[in-house]
Amino acid sequence: MHFASSATSLVGTLRDRRQKLAKLVNFPVVLWSGATISRNFAANTFPFRASSHFLYFAGLPLENAAIRLEDGKLQLFMDDAPDSSTLWHGETAKREEVAEIIGADVAYPLTGLKFNVYKSATIPVQNIVTREWQSKLLQRKASLEGIDFKLAKAIAQLRLTHDDAAIEELKKAAAVTVKAHKAGMTATKNAKSEAEVRAAMEQVIIANNMSCAYSSIVTVRGEVLHNNHYDNLLQPGDLLLADVGAETSTGWAADVTRTWAVSGKFSSTQQDIYDVVLAAHDACIAKICPSVEYQDIHLLAATIIAQGLVDLGILRGIPEDLVAMDAHALFFPHGVGHLLGLDVHDMEDLGDIAGYEEGRTRSDRFGLCYLRLNRPLRAKMLVTIEPGFYQVPAVLNNPDTRAKYQDVVKWEQLAKFADVRGIRIEDDVLVTENGSEVLTEALPTSEDAIANLVNE
Amino acid sequence: MHFASSATSLVGTLRDRRQKLAKLVNFPVVLWSGATISRNFAANTFPFRASSHFLYFAGLPLENAAIRLEDGKLQLFMDDAPDSSTLWHGETAKREEVAEIIGADVAYPLTGLKFNVYKSATIPVQNIVTREWQSKLLQRKASLEGIDFKLAKAIAQLRLTHDDAAIEELKKAAAVTVKAHKAGMTATKNAKSEAEVRAAMEQVIIANNMSCAYSSIVTVRGEVLHNNHYDNLLQPGDLLLADVGAETSTGWAADVTRTWAVSGKFSSTQQDIYDVVLAAHDACIAKICPSVEYQDIHLLAATIIAQGLVDLGILRGIPEDLVAMDAHALFFPHGVGHLLGLDVHDMEDLGDIAGYEEGRTRSDRFGLCYLRLNRPLRAKMLVTIEPGFYQVPAVLNNPDTRAKYQDVVKWEQLAKFADVRGIRIEDDVLVTENGSEVLTEALPTSEDAIANLVNE
C-alpha cells in the first residue's frame, strides 16, 4: 500500500466530510470501493480505480473494501491480503494499519459487512461484480432510488463544493496537467504523428505518478469531439487539439484543452476563429463568481461566438437572436463546461443530480441539451470553461440543418475557413468568494505564448 | 475506424485461420468481441480491449461485435453507429465496409445473432455484461464445458503456433518494446523515481500508437514479482527491474524484462548474481528447438541458478539435488516463462488448456507449481525465457522454510548479497525449425552494453 497523503490531515478531512454527511442523512451509509477488472484474462487487469464516492469518504484507493458511515462514525471493512500474495504483490498494509491511517473507529473483515448493511443506503459502483454484491447484501437493487436517491442528493451537496484537502489535490492535478500540455506543445515541432504528441504529454503524467483522468484527445481532427485515435500524421497547416488531464493517486482530476498550430503559426482564418473562441473563454471566466447561473455563462459563450462569427461574415443576424435559434450550436454543439472533482465530469454517475439544480431538467434545445451543469455557482465549486468551434460534417451537411439555417449561415464565407476543423480552449476554474481562480492559469492561451513553446 | 493492416493479407490470413478451425470442429462457433467497461462513470471508460479469440479470427478490435464461423465461412454481426454518435466519435466504418476488410461472407445487425447461435460453441469473454449476453443467447452458461471445451482445445491448438501475419505483428510489438527499454535505460541517469523511468518507457509505446500489453513493472523492489507501484526514489546502489511490453493495435504482445544498475555500474555482489541469471537465460535460449520439453528448459534454468549459487557459496550441495528439493525456488520461485501471443500469458483465459499438454496437470512442488507452460516445443511457438533471482522476505524469513533448508542455505553468505533484491532477464523467443529466433535480441543483456545506454 502506498499512501502519499499526510495521515494527520487525512483523518481530519475525512472526519469533517462524514460529520457533514451525518447532518444530511438519518440512515446508515455503506459505500463500496469496487474491484479490479480483467482485461484479456483474469490476471491481466485494468489499473484499479476506486469508486469516487468511496474515495471521498475513505481517502484511499483500497481494492475490495467497504466503509460504513453513521452519525459521523467510520467503520472499515476489508480483508488482509493472504500470505500467498506476498510473493507477487509484496507486503501490503493490514486492515488495522489502514484503519489508523484513515481514522476508522473500528475495522472488520469483509465477512462482517453482511451484519452491518441493514437499512443502509448506498451508491451503485461501476464495477458490475461489486454491484451484484451490493444488491445481494442489501437484498435489493442498488439503483439510486429510495434512500439511495436521498444519499445521492446528500453526497452531491457535499461534493459540489471542495474542501481544502480536495483543492490541494486538484491543484496538484492541474499543475501536472499544465506541464503535460507544455510538453505536448514543445514536442510538436519534431513529432510526426498525433501519437507522438500524446506520448510527450502522458509521459509527464506518468512521470509524476499520476494517471490520465480520461482517455486523452490529441488530434488534428478536433471536430470529432471524443476522438480517441492517434494515428493521423501532422501536416504543417493542421491545428492540433489536445484535451488531456491528470488524476492524482487519490482520484482528483484536471481537464484541460489547448489548440495550437502544428507549424507554430496560425493561418489568418485559424487566427480569426481562435480569437473568437478565446474571447468567449476569457469572458466566461471573467463572469464567474458566486450566485451567477452557469447556464448564463454558457449562453455568454454562445453569444460571443455568434457575435464573432457575425463579425467574420460566417453568420448573419443579431447574436442574441442567433443564440435563441441555436445557430451558434452549429459550430459550438456542446456545453461550456461541467463540474470537476473526483470525476472529470464530477458525479456524472448520479445522472443530473449533481449537475442540475433541484427542479431543473435538461433542455430539448440543440443548443442547450448537452449542458452538463445548470446551477447557480457557489464558492469552492470547480468548473471547466471550454468553449469551442467545430466544423462537424454530420452537423453542417445535414440537409434539414442547412434548410433551417439557410438564411443565417453564409456557406460560401464559411468555406473559406475550411482549415479550422476544431478549436477548443479549456481551463479549470475554482469559484472563489468574490470571483474565481484559474487552477490551470500557468498554461498560456495566447497564440504567441503557445508558439514560443512550439518553437522552443 | 482506423485499420493499419493491409486488407488483402488480412482477408487471406483470416480465411486460413478459420479453414484450419473448420478441420478441428464440427459445430458452428460464435465469438464475441466484448464491450468497453466503465471506469468511474459510464462515459469514462477504460480503453477497449477486444477478446483475443475474437481478434484472432476477426482481425480487428471491433466493439460490441460477434462473428460466426462454420465450415470456413465468416459471418459478421455488428450494428452501424447511430447518426447521433458522429458528433462525438466521428464517422466510423459501416458494417458492410468492415465485412469487406475482414473478408466476411455476409454481415448482419446484432439482432440477427439470436437466430444464428443455435448449437454453437463459444469462449466466454472477460467482459461480464457481454458474458451474460452470451449465456442469454446460447441459453446456457458459457463456461468452457461441453462443446465450448472442445472449441477451446481447437483454438488452443491453432494459436499455439503463429502464422506469418501473427509473427509480423509480434515482431512489431517486440521492436517497439526494445526501443522502450532502451529509452528507460537512457532515462535512468537523470530520473529521480521509478515513475520517471516508467514514463520514458511507456512514452515510446504510446508514441508508436501501441498500448501496454500489461501493467508495467518498473521498480527498485524487484523482489515483489508483480509490483505495480512506481513511487520509490532511485538510489545509487539500487537495481532497477523493468518488465514492460507493447501490444499492437490488433492485440499482439511483447513481454520483456531487463535489470540494470541505477548508477550504471553493478556492485560486485550484484554482478555475481546477474551473471548467474544471465547464464541461465542464455543456456535456456540455446536449448530451445522443436520437441524439447519446456519443463526441461525450466529445470535447466533452475539447475544453472542452483549451480551459480553454490559457486557463490550461497547454497551448499549438488545442483541437481538442490533442484530436486526445490532449493532453487527459494530464489527463483516462478516458472521460466510462458506462451506469448495475443495475450501476454497467451490463452491464460483457457486455464491450462493451452499451457499444458493434454493429460498433464500442474505440479504440487513449490519449484514447479508456477510453471505456466508444460509442453514439447514446436516450431512457430513463441515463448518467454525469464529466469530470475529474488530475495523475498516472506519466503526467506518463513520459519518453516528456514528449518527445511537449514542445511543447504548458507544464510551468513546470503546476507552479503543484501543489495540484490530482484533480478530478471526476459526475452521473447520464437521456436524455429532448427532452433530459435530471439525477437527481442536487439536489446542487450550484457552489463557493459546496458551501462553504455544508462551512461549515454
TrEMBL record, chains A, B:
Catalytic activity line of the entry: Release of any N-terminal amino acid, including proline, that is linked to proline, even from a dipeptide or tripeptide
Q: Note the Pfam families from the entry.
A: AMP_N, Peptidase_M24
Q: Which GO terms describe its biological process?
A: proteolysis
Q: Which GO terms describe its cellular component?
A: cytosol
The cofactor required is: Mn(2+)
Q: Which InterPro entries match?
A: Aminopep_P_N, Creatin/AminoP/Spt16_N, Creatinase/aminopeptidase-like, Pept_M24, Peptidase_M24B_aminopep-P_CS, X-Pro_dipept-like
Q: Where is the Aminopeptidase P N-terminal domain?
A: 9-134
Q: What is its EC number?
A: 3.4.11.9
Q: Which family does it belong to?
A: Belongs to the peptidase M24B family.
**Record's protein name:** Xaa-Pro aminopeptidase
Which species?
Answer: Aliterella atlantica CENA595
| Source organism phylogeny | Bacteria, Bacillati, Cyanobacteriota, Cyanophyceae, Chroococcidiopsidales
